Input
Amino acid sequence: MYVANSKRLTTEGARKMMATAIEKAKEAGIAVSIAITDAGGHLILFERMEGGRFHSVHSSTTKAVCAASNKRPTSSRGAVAQELDVAHAIGLALAAGPERWTAMEGGCPVISDGECIGGIGIAGGDWQTDERIAQQAVESIGATWRIDPANGRRTKQNNQPPHHRHSGRKSAWLLSRFV
Output
């Protein structure tokens, strides 16, 4: 077969995710930047909230692109979820390109029926808040961002991330200073 059917994130879906992210950021009392991409990492929507810091523009976009590319939430793990030390995290970011990979949390893939249809990146809050807002935005359109370790597919029912999310704190912090 030479042609396949595929799903895509619609502008309407991206707008719903954006509205949810803005609402959740306001509830948290923070001003964030929000980037939403298609499955190829191409920007669909972007907004920097009033008072959002200018560096969060780049961070949120990179998080969305990385999440869509890796089809999993952003973290200090490699493309196949392997542990990375600081040198390898920096090396991967440099090899992939500064706008393609990040070790900073706050990016989530948008998964529909097991297929990645986009990514969302949130930047401007602490890492837990950025990540929580991204997750809530994805779930607002009935999609998911999680991986079911039993079959490798993303699912909302699996409440445990596929790896330890806090092991790369130092790597993410150092990487954010150099890339």
In short: Confidence is low (pLDDT under 50) at residues 153-168. Helices lie at 11-28, 55-70, 86-96, 127-139, 169-178. The chain has one domain: 11-178. Residues 4 and 115 are 13 Å apart (CA to CA).
